[in-house]
């Protein structure tokens, strides 16, 4: 197992402001909080102008937000010569913990309440080690990150975990994952609830990447398709600005769509899910690695395959080009069905974009409807390995702060020392 630690205070952007319903005894509380979460510093008069709520309601709601410590006074601004107190989101009043778990490694991070990454660590460990070992390692890193920030576990208001497999939205459990041996129906939220009194959000890794790329690199885009081509093939959908998971969390799993056998293939390959002829069994990193090894090429990992591609190895280039055509055809089906504005290609194999993008683009334009492609953009991911951890942090923040009851922040370590 290897690791790499960073502590850079990476800013991932402000959360979008989407006004929720304002009815009920606490109506407007979440709406006002979303204004402050978007990064604005506002007076009560400015809040009234933006929300249309009465002054008495705003007074009550801001008082309640001050009680939770989610909003804090932020100095004074002059209004017609008279000082008016302004307020801001208390982004440093607590922490979020996130872990983006992949097939062969993970990234674990500590974030402030806006989703800004304060510190992170990258670890190499196969997910096939099982949930007890992998989550135990995540838990150990959470403790180290909190200790490094002089923070206590009760400062954590939300935890986010992403995994390389299908996740049931309601339970946060992985359901029949092809590569996650021992994880089926494992209670991931329950594991973390032993040590933290906060919500635990579990999602598939491609969803986290999709949300991270959209929020940071394409915030104006309402319809986005993220395709992750790494060890496997996965995708995430952003529909009307929101992550689209479907009825149970299975939306967007194009890696296990059936592909008609290409002429150059003798026998349809068996996929890790147990079916025959899945897209991933042709175009996933593990499939390319399998074919390279069958040809006698010295390659032990997907990273080795990428290095061979970059060096111009003929076998690796041929396999990648074949994979790009199949990926493009599968993406074309999704483009016809979903009509995204932007298609983002990410994952380990996307690093060899010279051999993937041309084939993907040609297949998409050839097989998709003209109306669906006349304004489409097909681009590479910009957040790299951080896309998943960024998306997780923002998903957790969105979940924790977009509904009642809102969390009550505890005094910070500095406050406790002072008292």
Q: Can you tell me the CATH topology of the largest domain?
A: Nucleotidyltransferase, domain 5
Mean pLDDT: 90
CATH architecture of the largest domain: 2-Layer Sandwich
Tell me the span between the first and last alpha carbons: 42 Å
Query: Percent range for helical residues?
Result: 25-40%
* Low-pLDDT runs: 2-25
Q: Going by CATH, what is the homologous superfamily of the largest domain? A: ATPase, nucleotide binding domain
Q: Structural class from helices and strands?
A: alpha/beta
Radius of gyration (Å): 23 Å
Count of discrete domains: 3
Biggest sheet strand order reads 1-7-6-5-8-9
Oligomer: single chain
Order of helices and strands: EHEHHEEEEEHEHEHEEEHHHHEHHEHH
Number of helices: 14
Portion in strands: 15-25%
Query: Biggest sheet: strands, sense, closure?
Result: 6 strands, mixed
Shape assignment: globular
Q: Count the beta strands.
A: 14
Description:
The chain is α/β, with parallel strands linked by helices. The protein has three domains: 3-11 and 94-209 and 387-418, ATPase, nucleotide binding domain (Nucleotidyltransferase, domain 5, 2-Layer Sandwich); 29-89, Winged helix-like DNA-binding domain superfamily/Winged helix DNA-binding domain (Arc Repressor Mutant, subunit A), CATH 1.10.10; 219-382, Nucleotidyltransferase, domain 5 (2-Layer Sandwich), CATH 3.30.420.40. The chain is 37% helix and 20% strand. It has helices spanning 29-37, 44-51, 55-68, 131-148, 188-193, 205-217, 279-283, 285-294, 302-310, 314-338, 353-367, 370-373, 387-401, 413-418; strands at residues 3-6, 42-43, 71-79, 82-89, 95-101, 105-111, 117-124, 156-163, 200-204, 224-229, 233-239, 242-244, 342-346, 377-380. A six-stranded mixed β-sheet has the order 1-7-6-5-8-9, with helices on both faces. A five-stranded mixed β-sheet has the order 12-11-10-13-14, sandwiched between helices. It starts with a strand and ends with a helix. 43% of the residues are buried. Residues 2-25 have low confidence and may be disordered. It comes from Arthrobacter cheniae. This is ROK family transcriptional regulator. Belongs to the ROK (NagC/XylR) family.
């Amino acid at each position: 197992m290897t690791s790499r630690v960073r502590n850079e205070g990476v800013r991932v952007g402000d959360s979008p402001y989407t006004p929720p319903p304002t009815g009920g005894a606490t109506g407007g509380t979440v709406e006002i909080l979303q204004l402050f979460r978007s990064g604005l510093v506002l007076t009560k008069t400015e809040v009234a102008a933006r929300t249309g709520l009465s002054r008495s309601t705003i007074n009550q709601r801001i008082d309640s937000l001050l009680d939770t410590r989610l909003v804090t006074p932020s100095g004074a601004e002059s209004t017609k010569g008279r000082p008016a107190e302004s307020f801001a989101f208390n982004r440093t009043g607590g922490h979020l913990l996130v872990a983006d778990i992949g097939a062969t490694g993970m990234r674990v991070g500590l974030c402030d309440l806006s989703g800004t990454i304060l510190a992170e660590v990258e670890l190499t460990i196969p997910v096939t080690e099982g949930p007890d070992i992998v989550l135990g390692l995540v838990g150990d890193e959470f403790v180290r990150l909190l200790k490094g920030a002089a923070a206590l576990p009760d400062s954590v208001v939300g935890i986010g975990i992403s995994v390389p497999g299908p996740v049931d939205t309601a339970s946060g459990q992985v359901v029949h994952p092809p590569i996650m041996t021992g994880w089926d129906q494992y209670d991931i939220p329950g594991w973390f609830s032993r040590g933290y009194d906060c919500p635990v959000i579990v999602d598939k890794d491609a969803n986290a990447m999709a949300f991270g790329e959209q929020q940071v690199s394409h915030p104006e885009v309402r319809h986005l398709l993220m395709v992750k081509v790494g060890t496997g093939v996965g995708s995430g959908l952003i529909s009307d600005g929101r992550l689209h998971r479907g009825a149970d969390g299975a939306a967007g799993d194009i890696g296990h769509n059936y592909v008609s056998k290409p002429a150059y293939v003798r026998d349809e390959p068996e996929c890790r899910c147990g079916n025959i002829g899945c897209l991933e069994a042709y175009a996933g990193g593990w499939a390319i690695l399998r074919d390279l090894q069958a040809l006698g090429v010295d390659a032990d990992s997907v990273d080795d395959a990428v290095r061979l591609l970059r060096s111009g190895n003929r076998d690796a280039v041929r396999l990648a080009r074949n994979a790009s055509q199949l990926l493009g055809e599968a993406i074309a089906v999704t483009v016809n069905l979903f009509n995204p504005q932007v298609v983002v290609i990410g994952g380990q194999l996307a690093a060899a974009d010279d051999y993937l993008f041309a084939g993907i683009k040609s297949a998409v334009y050839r097989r998709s409807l003209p109306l669906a492609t006349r304004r489409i953009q097909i681009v590479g991911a910009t957040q790299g390995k951080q896309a998943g951890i960024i998306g997780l942090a923002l998903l957790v923040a969105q979940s924790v702060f977009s509904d009642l009851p809102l969390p009550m922040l505890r005094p910070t370590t500095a406050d406790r020392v002072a008292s």
